[in-house]
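Why run this: before we spend reagent on co-expression, it is cheaper to look at a predicted model of the complex and decide which construct boundaries make sense. The entries below are exactly what would go into the expression plan.
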Amino acid sequence: MTMFDVKNIRKDFPILTREVNEKPLVYFDNAATSQTPQQVIDVIVDYYQNYNANIHRGVHALSQEATDKYEQARLKIQKHFNAAKAHEIIFTSGTTHSINIVANGFSAILKKGDEIIVSALEHHSNIVPWQMLCERTGAVLKVIAMNQKGELLLNVYDELLSDKTKLVFCNHISNALGTINPIKEIIDKAHEVGAAVLIDGAQAAPHLVADVQALDVDFYTISAHKVCGPTGAGMLYGKEEWLNKLPPYQGGGEMIAEVTFEKTTYADLPHKFEAGTPNICGGIAFGAALDYMNSIGFEAIAAYENELLEYATQKLLEIEGLKIYGTAKNKTSVISFNIEELHPYDIGSILDKLGIAVRTGHHCAQPIMDFFNIPGTVRASFCFYNTKEEIDVLVAGVKRAKNMLL
Amino acid sequence: MQIQEIQEEIVDEFAMFEDWMQRYEYMIDLGKALPLIDAQYKTDENIIKGCQSKVWVHAELEENKLVFTADSDAIITKGIIAILIRAFSNQKPLDIIEANTDFIDEIGLKEHLSPTRANGLVSMIKQIKLYAVAYQTQVK
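The model came back. Tokens follow.
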């Protein structure tokens, strides 16, 4: 065991002390949403208790205070992802919203016959908006295939790229399998043919820090609730030149410069994409969540989570008939598995009775399940506040479920 | 036996179990023992939406009574189906339409199953009742 002080870290998360079905909660559904530390809960409470007000428009003190905190959060996020400019960070309701802003924007840019490339590892939220975009524009969707380990085939990608390619979309890390994709290579190759790249960082953000300038990525998206923040808040990073090119997604207050009944001129970035009253508290708490994670340190987090992943992989594979899906060389602390012909739902139901929270089903990634020809998997995803003892509870639970069901 | 009587019988049986484990083991046994549905009825049209596992339900009218056959790819779900079939199969459509389903709560199924599963359970009952409504018109 490293010097990672998980015992103390767990004290930050009040929810981890609760019981489920009269058993201590073992929370292994972190890839769906992470838990919230007291430090972030305090920020949320403080907002509603002390300075709840609408931002960017009031002359009064509360509005000013809320505006300052909200904009400070934007700066924190900018710094975290090393964006060149603060207005390249757009607050959104989460990754899905972020992706839709870009997909909608490109419907004004794409022409019939243009091509969009997505990876075979995508979440539905990174497939459906592009399909809708293709329907609207007549563009064609192409898919980067993967191998049995759940790794993208870059030679297939090379063949798909051409001067027709206008956009490439790929997740940084697969939610269903945990594969870490070689996004730098994917971005560079797309740029060689003049295509823009959106990387969905929802699953990567809790495990590593993406430097958007070093990556030279055009768009990067994340959700706050994956990084110990609240739900309903997230970010779209976009290069300034791209954000200026895209039309606004929603009309409303905040996003305008001047309105007459003849014509409206849009506000500058980032407000052009932030119509209406935003999730102010959520944005501020998002910043606080990144502060919290940085206080622990992403290097320490990654090292500890790797330890958990290795331990869990080894222990689970000792169970006869258990098969892990997603065995990429580079992967994060996500284990998707099945046992023989057992339905993941049966296993998940019994684990729930034992107080263990896992995800079962297709993980919003049906094409991946089709690839492996399975209805779904049981997915256990680990966070830095989990322990090896909890993994032992999971392994015992899976054995028990297997005995009951087979 | 009337639907009400069968339901009471099921409630009595479940009352004997001391914990969830025994209840689940019983449902798993019921699931494994459920007679297979005729393969021709395992069609997409017969799939019930709202379940995380796949559930097929088929109904036929025999001598003015509705006979259900069903299947699922998950065992515990099959166990739930077995209980529903026991309660509602071989009954007159009108009785099925009018039957109340409180016994589901009483045997702790709805309360103890996860929300998505509970929804599946609700969908299954809804489908059974829909069949009954549809076949009611054919009863002589």
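Chain A touches chain B through 16 residues (CB under 8 Å). Chain A has two domains: 6-30+297-405, 41-294. Bring this page to Monday's planning discussion.
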